[in-house]
Amino acid sequence: MKVEHTCEGSSYSAASSVRFLFFFPSLQIMMAVSGEQAMAGERMLRMPSCLLKPTRVMLSHKPWALFILIFVFVSFAYHKLYWGIWEDPKSRGPPYGLSAEISCAHYVPSSLNIAGGPSPSTGSVFFVETSEQTTPSYLFSCSVESAARAHPTSRVVVLMKGLAKENASLPKHWAFSLMSCFPNVEIQPLDLTDLFSGTPLAQWYLQPQRQQEPHFLHVLSDACRIVLMWKFGGIYLDTDFIVLKDLQNLTDALGIQDDDELNGAFLSFKPKHKFMELCMEDFVQNYNGWVWGHQGPELLTRVFKKWCSIQTIKSMSCKGVSALAPEVVYPIPWQDWKKLFEPVSALELRKLLKNTYAVLVWNKLSHGTKLEIPSQALLAQLYSQFCPATYTKMKQDSEELSRHAV
């Protein structure tokens, strides 16, 4: 029989005390030993029955009672901390002041010449997000928009690891709504096991210790781009590029970053190209995930030097693969990334970008820098001209935040 005792709206049952003793067997021994003390407690001044038994334990076994209280408190704190840290960010909703609803008619004029959609005869443009992030930034949105505008007849494929394969709908975020306004943009889940299957990187990816390496997400991105180029061909771009012109004319090519190093932020190759096959082999044979860039720019530089039997990188074409001059896709050296936030005249901008197809913004270095919108800063002008829909959203959000700040 379960006997209920109530005290100020709360309840305490004999069954509860049995369960309590089950989880703390050491207390069964202590309570048996203290039976006489418990009997004496009955002759004490009566207190509410719901507090009687806990009080006896507290008085008779102070060290144990203190230990139990500390244990319960720490367990509770750990539980709250754990679930606070691992709470799904998507459940928190969009940032304040940023609407997830986008009017395509407002942001993307119908006069834009992409109504026909992509053509199967042209290669795809690929973007990859290897983290679980599903809240694209303004720069991410600008990268995709500028590529979609510059390649109206090409598929612009955005692969994101954070998207669940079984979920047909995209997360509620303004950037997904805006990118979806372009009929040639496709946003898909990134299945890494499937992507790497049938390549030398399949076994490498399945080794769990790789994920403990300090640069794993960047290395994973390096792996994805060379496999995409080998399997499907087309164009690969990092998500911090702003595209100015059609890149389809730059075939079997990659760009020179500085004096003696190539960069894989832009790649353009036909499928099953031998150069990309050699890159995959080098990725596995000379793997070192603990050194920044070893699997990215350094890998491409190593393979290109072997490919051409040269010691120094320069603008050239060798055995059908072109190393493009820095101004083609890396007009702003990474050392000078702050120039992106400095004002330039329209004449200076045209001169700077005369021979440029795309501009890398070096987001790893520049992401914490404030960009005034609108302004004459180089980056602001690039947004305005080459991803006007994203730029309009940036201005709208900036104005809304300013109103709330007043």
From TrEMBL:
Domain of life: Eukaryota
Catalytic function, reaction form: a beta-D-Gal-(1->4)-beta-D-Glc-(1<->1)-Cer(d18:1(4E)) + UDP-alpha-D-galactose = a globoside Gb3Cer (d18:1(4E)) + UDP + H(+); a beta-D-Gal-(1<->1')-ceramide + UDP-alpha-D-galactose = alpha-D-Gal-(1->4)-beta-D-Gal-(1<->1')-Cer + UDP + H(+)
InterPro entries the record matches: A1-4-GlycosylTfrase_dom, Glycosyltransf_32, GlycoTrfase_DXD_sugar-bd_CS, Nucleotide-diphossugar_trans
UniProt cross-references to Gene3D superfamilies, sorted A to Z: 3.90.550.20
A GO term from the CC aspect: Golgi membrane
UniProt keyword list: Glycosyltransferase, Golgi apparatus, Lipid biosynthesis, Lipid metabolism, Membrane, Transferase, Transmembrane, Transmembrane helix
Positions of transmembrane segments: 64-86
GO biological process: glycosphingolipid biosynthetic process
Annotated EC: 2.4.1.228
Main location, first listed in the record: Golgi
Family stated for the protein in its record: Belongs to the glycosyltransferase 32 family.
Name of this chain's protein: Lactosylceramide 4-alpha-galactosyltransferase
Source organism per UniProt: Cyanistes caeruleus (Eurasian blue tit)
Lineage: Eukaryota, Metazoa, Chordata, Craniata, Vertebrata
